[in-house]
Amino acid sequence: METSEVERLIEDGIEGAEASVTLPRVPDEDHEDAHFAAVVVSPAFEGKSLVQQHQMVYDALGESMTTDIHAMELKTYTPEAYEAAGE
């Protein structure tokens, strides 16, 4: 799975989301260990706990979390929190 496809799934699944997805380590072609890292900013996260925010991302990724994605490092922010964090 390409990073752009992961971004599209997240952005399509969470209202107003902007996702930036990278590969945090060199993929091991001998194993199916697709590790991704995502920074997701969305006003839909407002009032949600960190666990709820991450669950929204996992829900947006759907079956890909069990078929194409081995691990996902997540950073989720509301737009205000993202601006304050200076990411």
TrEMBL record:
Superkingdom of origin: Archaea
Pfam family, one: BolA
Family of the protein in this entry: Belongs to the BolA/IbaG family.
Protein name: Transcriptional regulator, BolA protein family
Species of origin: Halogeometricum rufum
